[in-house]
Amino acid sequence: MPHWTRSLAVRLVLPYLVTVPPLLAVGYLLASRAIDTAAVDLAGSVALQEAQAIGARLPAALPPEALAQRCREEVRGTVARLTVIAASGVVLCDSEAAPAEMVNHLQRPEVAGALRQGSGIDRRESATVHYPLLYAAVRLGEGADARVVRVGMPTELLGAALRRLETVVRLMVLFTGIVGLAPALYLARRLGRRLGRMTSFARAVAAGDLSQRLGAVQRDELGALEEHLDGMAVRLERWFDDMQKEGEKVRGVLGGMLEGVAVIARTGEVMLMNRRAEQLFGIASGIGTRGRHLVEMCRDPELQGLLRDAIAGTVPMPSREILLAGDARRYLSVSVAPIGGRQQDAPGLVLVLHDITELKRLETMRRDFVANVSHELRTPLTAIRGYAETLLAGALDDPARARQFLAVIDRHADRLGRLIDDLLTLSDLELGKTALKREAVQVEALADEVIEVLREKAERGNVALRKEIPVDMPLLMGDADRLQQVLINLTDNAVKYTPAGGRVTISARVTREREKPMVEVAVADTGIGIPAEVLPRLTERFYRVDKARSRELGGTGLGLAIVKHLVQAHGGHLDIASTVNVGTTVRFAIPAWAPIGEQ
């Protein structure tokens, strides 16, 4: 064995040797305590026998004065104290105090023990005579007639011998401590400093400070441990830096991905989930997902079934499209891959979630748009072709019929032209190609122009057309021509769907939204109304509540879509409220005009 190893062993044994005398002193203390306990138990047994004998000599029924005299006589010439207590705790007599001045003794430990089990012992300072006594109590009789006879012995009789033993033990402890203190302190300081350095080092490493170094103080076991700790810190620092760099790369990649990524253990617990995946599952930011089961965050049966099949290895790994159930219906393209490349024994799976809801919506819109445009174009083209073929087949020889057919062709050609114009307008608005002039527009003048344009149409349908606009209405900020187009479209629709005898009212009022003044223009009619369930779809392209009636009245199905885009282009919003057979009110709010210096 090397010298430095033996030296360390000696230094470790020496503190053990100098601790033996204190341990012996502790043994003496324990022995003295045991002697004290034994002495108390012995004295208690003697006192119990004395109390039993005295109780046997006391008559059961004595007047209080006679009983007090008898108590004093029983212990006269001794150091004992005698007390007789009723079953209720009331003191009947006491050899050294008047019973009337003493409190109820029912809760005294020795009295309670005697009443409960026949006898009781306790050692404490007397509240009556104010010096420590060893109490021994016995119960005589049963029930309400029971009495407790208690004998108290001064503990000073036991203390003299115990104090002499304690003095000897104290001297031994003091002597041993003085002899062993110097070497113990020296070794404790040396080892304590080294262990303290190691503790501080370990605490710093645990807190993340891997730049700390110990350096071996002495070539012994602790020195070897110090060297190993330094080497561990160097390797940990290198590994931690590498892991931190890799973690930052992974977090950067996952955080910047448009796709949701989730790593799921084979038991279903989430090991990792990026923010996009949390958004797709509707999880609020800041809520921890690690360790939670996927079913807690997404109860969609299709996704759960896909995950179960993937864990079981019963489905191929390429992506699958699923409809995520819930309040917000989302279409997801889910790709599943095992961690490590092997499906059967992989510790988990990687789910890549791509939200294709918008693609599905755009695909549906494109399909519906193509179908609607084809249908809308085919209707006038079919009519034009049919009447043209009829004319070519000989109807030109009949001037009256030819003029009638040409009028139909002209009407359908006009409808076709309006449809194409509306499509071009809507396309420019959606692409942001429509330039809007920013100028002050007077609401009342705008309403007057619209009423003038539609007056004749309203009179033909016997519909009252009026305005209700305050004289102090502020100016609008927008393109007058485009705003007129909006108001004409809304008023024209109101006149179309209002039966004879009804009315259409153009009104305006001032509102505030986010401390910004707005002018709200409303077009209200007393027409046929619109069912509540179709109101959200009114601004869709080519959507009609009553398709037959709309085509009969010459609508293209694009008017409200154009209105919505024009209002949004002005920084406003559109709102539609309607009740069947009561009427419809369409409101649009546009920012109010303010001079440059007041904005």
Low-confidence stretches: 1-9, 548-553, 595-599
Count of beta strands: 17
CATH architecture of the largest domain: 2-Layer Sandwich
Strand order of the largest sheet: 2-1-5-4-3
Mind describing the biggest β-sheet? 5 strands, antiparallel
Number of helices: 15
Q: Shape, please?
A: elongated
Distance between the first and last residues' Cα: 92 Å
Which CATH class of the largest domain? Alpha Beta
| Overall pLDDT | 76
Number of domains: 4
Radius of gyration: 52 Å
- What do we call the CATH homologous superfamily of the largest domain? PAS domain
The protein's oligomeric status is single chain
Which structural class do the helices and strands define?
A: alpha+beta
- The helix fraction, in percent, is 40-55%
Percentage of residues in DSSP E strands: 15-25%
Structural summary, described in words:
The chain is of the alpha+beta class and 599 residues long. The protein has four domains: 10-207, Beta-Lactamase, CATH 3.30.450.20; 257-355, Beta-Lactamase (2-Layer Sandwich), CATH 3.30.450; 361-429, Signal transduction histidine kinase, dimerisation/phosphotransfer (DHp) domain (Helix Hairpins), CATH 1.10.287.130; 435-598, Heat Shock Protein 90 (2-Layer Sandwich). It has 15 helices and 17 strands. The chain has helices spanning 3-18, 20-57, 64-74, 109-117, 156-206, 221-256, 275-280, 294-297, 301-312, 357-392, 399-431, 443-460, 480-496, 547-552, 559-569; strands at residues 81-86, 91-94, 119-125, 132-140, 147-154, 260-265, 270-273, 320-324, 330-338, 348-355, 439-441, 464-468, 476-478, 503-513, 516-525, 573-579, 583-591. It has a five-stranded antiparallel sheet. A five-stranded antiparallel sheet has the order 7-6-10-9-8, with helices on both faces. It is elongated.
